[in-house]
Amino acid sequence: MEEMFSRLAVFFQMPFVRYAFIVGILIALCASLLGVTLVLKRFSFIGDGLSHVAFGAMAVAAVVGLTNNMFIVMPITIISAVLLLRTGTNTRIKGDAAVAMISVGALAFGYLLMNKFPTSANVSGDVCTTLFGSTSIITLKEEDVWFCAVLSLVVVLAFIFFYNKIFSVTFDENFARATGTRVSVYNLIIAIIIAVIIVIGMSLVGSLLISALIIFPALSAMRVFKSFKSVTVCSACLSVFCAAIGILVSILANTPVGATIVIADIAVFGIFTLIGGFRSGFKS
Amino acid sequence: MSQLTCRELSLGYEGKEIISNLSFHVNAGDYLCIVGENGSGKSTLMKTILGLRKPMKGEIITGDGLRSREIGYLPQQTVVQKDFPASVKEIVLSGFQGRCGLRPFYTKAGKRIAMDNIRKMGIEDLKNRCYRELSGGQQQRVLLARALCATKKMLLLDEPVAGLDPIVTADMYSLIESLNKNEGITIIMISHDISAALKYATHILHISDELFFGTRRQFEESKAGKRLSVLMGGEF
Q1: Strand partners, B87
Q2: What is the pLDDT of residues A257-273, one digit of tens each?
Q3: Region B188-193: what's the mean pLDDT?
Q4: Residue A165 touches partner B, C-beta closer than 8 Å
Q5: For residues A145-183, b (16+ Cβ closer than 10 Å) or e, as one string?
Q6: Which residue from A minimizes the CA distance to B77?
Q7: Is the pLDDT at B145 greater than 50, yes or no?
Q8: Does B54 lie at the interface with A, CB-CB under 8 angstroms?
Q9: How far apart are CA A52 and CA A240, in angstroms?
Q10: Are B153 and B70 in contact (CB under 8 A)?
Q11: What is the C-alpha separation between A173 and B97, in angstroms, rounded?
């Protein structure tokens, strides 16, 4: 026990670990916010699709030799998000098929580029980091941490500002449009927010695991809570809690950060499913 | 001036007309039933009236103080709503969204009107309940309360009694009738239920190969009306 705390204390004496901890929690908070909307719009997999696009874009940035790859990754991901969410119901290729196409396409393209034009000696290490996130919290890059902090705050503020509009648009798009809400504008905003969340989340948990960060807290909260507001608040709290636990455990047990956070999310989902089951069991 | 005038409308998909040259008008306080078979274009017409899609030809004019975004709308249930975690209050309040513009939150006055509408629909005791746990009839009342937040003048109802049992159906019809009679709200209802249409409506729009628009009396005299009356065993 004592050893555990002293190990944590050593880590938290480094200012950089403290920042990274705070940023990890901010990212988790952002990721959980739009989870409910995405799950209900049947877009749970958009996180996956977009993060693979971001992976491809990162490969391009690495090959071109940009020092700050966000200038390429962010715009490409945002454009893909807009295109994917716009497909809606009226197109030939349905939402899930479009996501699958873009996702595997970008993944293959990115992996090919990284292999053919290696920028560092450790290609498999680079690929692994972008796919699964940093292996330890101290390997997060400092400029990434600051970048994420700023964007997370922007996302949280935007979500609060558009909260009621996101609710209307998710619950009943046709009604909203018929009564004068500018649905396409808000769908665009939702798409942009999602893209931003995915790009900042990737540095923490990597592109393969970001979906978990987005949908697990929302699914857990939906097992137990009944109103949109309580589900949103609960999933934000759960996500922050799991991120904190995951980061602490990853320091202590020396496990990869992203994977540990996701395992914590899955455990909480199991617990909430049980609670929800008991509750409805009592009622009927 | 009529509240809603449709002039020589042609509707259809991808260049294929399913309704052509349709003209009708709705005055304040009217109760119009749109009847017709499946696939006759009732839903397309409704979407056009709501401004969700454009007509191929013709125009829709609103007047008499009604703006085109002031039509309250009671949609059919969607798949998304079946497991949406939302309380009754949240859903009813979202009826005001269209008027909010960029303002992020609802006003106090809006919240008060929403509560009034909840009371009017007789669902006050359900206001904090979860929408997906309510019965079909209760859910329709919630959506009706939301539609009332969006309008004071005209309601467009898309098969409001689909899937409801006979008792709840009768309740729903009398609720709609009281909105029409006591609140003076114009009703446009899409329905399969011809007998109810003939009981409550002041005007009928019958969409089939031959279009018919007129008062209920005129419809009963018309060829289509006579044919339907034979089908129903002549109980008008």
Answers
A1: B130
A2: 888 999 999 999 999 99
A3: 86
A4: yes
A5: bebbeebbeebeebbeebebbbbbbbbbbbbbbbbbbeb
A6: A172
A7: yes
A8: no
A9: 24
A10: yes
A11: 12
Residue A122 has what pLDDT?
A: 66
Residues of chain A found within 8 Å of residue B69, distances taken between Cβ atoms: 178-180
The answer to whether A179 and B101 are in contact (CB under 8 A) is no
CA gap B117, B156 in Å, rounded = 17
Question: Which residues in chain A touch residue B52, judged by CB atoms under 8 angstroms apart?
Answer: 174, 177-178
- Asked if A219 has any chain B CB less than 8 Å from its own CB, the reply is no
- Rounded Cα gap, residues B76 and B159, in angstroms: 7
Nearest-Cα distance to chain A for B231, in Å, is 35
Predicted TM-score of the model (pTM): 0.84
Residue matched to tokens 């901890």: A21
Low-confidence ranges of chain A (pLDDT < 70): 66-69, 86-95, 119-124, 134-140, 282-284
Higher pLDDT among residues B63 and A93, named by residue: B63
Interface test with A, best of B43, B81, B84, B106 (most A CBs within 10 A): B84
As for the ipTM of the complex, it is 0.84
Q: A160 contacts in B (CB within 8 Å)?
A: 104
